[in-house]
Design a protein that fits this description.
By secondary structure, the chain is mainly β. It has a 19-stranded mixed beta sheet that branches. Strand 5 and strand 6 form a beta hairpin.
Length: 435
């Protein structure tokens, strides 16, 4: 009797192979009888399969993720994996920025189906200078106010979905959902006199009433990527999605997200093209938060300090040019495994797993806004909607660190390539794996 075809490599091993030796002598072992076997009915109990930090500070959410940064994701399933339960919770800022999502998926048949409930906050920011007055010891002082407005959109959502796998890397998705949108608007005032800050306070501003929204969507999704230390290193990922919204608003939303990864030993070159577009009667409704290309997971280096310096220059730059109902983002990265496994990285380490990244980011936002929406006018200037928009670019270096496979930190230094030379490099930190 030969077992060569069933032996895992290496077929020639040092020492005695106890498994093969025992298989060649079946007379040494007796086959158990039925009365020696205890039959236990199968129970579909959920047990924890995986727990990790998974950040996705993107502008869109999928059914099983949530677009949340700095939190914890958990996966539970039964023994056969027919049923899975996903949970994700995160706090990224104040208590108002807490978000969470729970989703159930049945994978027993070829057509998988499930449902989810979620509460997700979407903050948008606006910083500007304005003349103001304050009262100090009974006197009225004329001051400059560096104000920052925070507009939070809260989405409470219940959804049902199904997806049909075409292959190991491709599938179709379809779904429907009911959402409730509500708002909160805060303003932080920083009062300056002769260049010195003399007072700081916070106030809650009026916000619009909430509304209900229904949605149906279809998507074509692909993913055959091979993940490295902190980001994909080879293959592709894409999502092409069309959504129809009705109820409180009437519009279509289009998402095109394509990512390609090339492994050229000992480094990787990655490309991403991302486009989001609202089309329809309410596509430019000011009650919807605009797309913003200056988020650090899209175009890095355009923090509030740099935005202020750019607006003070003579290039005609305006922060509103980075907001719109349509958006296009492009990214190029060279990813170099830096520290970690000896076969992959130049610096061997058992504890520090990291990759060094050189990047070039670019983005463009455009699309008119509804001039009749008074709330939107108080947040975003209308003048930029009718000017010719200009893209923004930045370049820099980042170091993604995989912290015990629990979270991925991305400290980066980015240099904006915009304006008239008044911009400067800045440091930032993302809690997210590489796109």
């Amino acid at each position: 009797m030969t077992f060569d075809a069933a032996i895992l490599p290496p077929s020639l091993r040092m020492g005695r192979d106890l498994v093969v030796t025992n298989l060649k002598q079946p007379q040494l072992f007796s086959i158990p009888t039925d009365d020696q076997i205890e039959h236990i009915p199968y129970e579909k109990r959920f047990k924890l399969d995986h727990i990790s930090q998974q950040a996705g500070a993107g502008i869109s959410t999928n059914r099983l993720g949530g677009g949340l940064a700095g939190g914890v994701n958990m996966i539970f399933s039964d023994m056969l994996g027919d049923n899975q339960l996903f949970g994700g919770f995160a706090v990224n800022g104040e208590v108002y920025d807490f978000g969470g999502q729970i989703a159930f998926v049945n994978q027993k048949n070829k057509v998988n189906w499930g449902a989810s409930v979620s509460h997700i906050p979407y903050p948008a920011y606006r910083t500007y200078w304005q003349q103001d007055t304050i009262r100090v010891n009974g006197d009225t002082l004329q001051v400059m106010n560096l104000a920052q407005e925070v507009w939070r959109t809260f989405q409470d959502r219940a959804a049902a979905f199904a997806y049909f796998p075409i292959s190991k890397s491709l599938r179709f998705e379809a779904g429907a959902s009911f959402s409730r949108y509500s708002y909160r608007r805060d303003k932080f005032n920083n009062y300056f006199l002769d260049g010195n800050r003399v007072l700081q306070d916070r106030e809650k501003l009026p916000a619009p009433n909430g509304f209900n929204l229904q949605q149906v969507d279809v998507a074509y999704v692909g993913d055959n990527s091979q993940f490295g230390i902190a980001s994909p290193m080879n293959g592709f990922r894409h999502r092409f999605q069309v959504e129809k919204y009705f109820g409180g608003l009437d519009f279509y939303s289009l998402l095109v997200d394509y990512r390609r990864y090339f492994w050229i030993d000992p480094f990787n070159i990655s490309f991403r093209a991302l486009h989001q577009n609202r089309i329809g009667n309410d596509a430019a409704n000011g009650i919807l938060p605009p797309f913003a290309v200056f988020y650090p997971t899209l175009v890095r280096g355009y923090g509030w300090n740099n935005l202020y310096l750019l607006e003070q220059g003579e290039s005609g730059f305006n922060t509103d040019d980075l907001l719109g109902s349509k958006m296009l983002v492009g990214n190029i990265e060279i990813r170099i495994p830096f520290t970690g496994p000896e076969r992959l990285t130049p610096i061997k380490s058992k504890f520090l797993f990291s990759e060094l990244t050189l990047f070039l980011d670019g983005g463009l936002a455009w699309g008119d806004w509804n001039n009749e929406n008074q709330f939107e006018q108080s947040i975003f200037s209308q003048s930029s909607s009718f000017r010719k928009r200009k893209p923004i670019f930045s370049t820099g270096v980042a170091l993604r660190v995989n912290v015990f496979n629990a979270m991925i930190l991305e400290p980066f230094y980015a240099i904006p390539l915009q304006g008239d030379g008044m911009s400067r490099g800045s440091f930032g930190l993302n809690f997210t794996p590489g796109w």
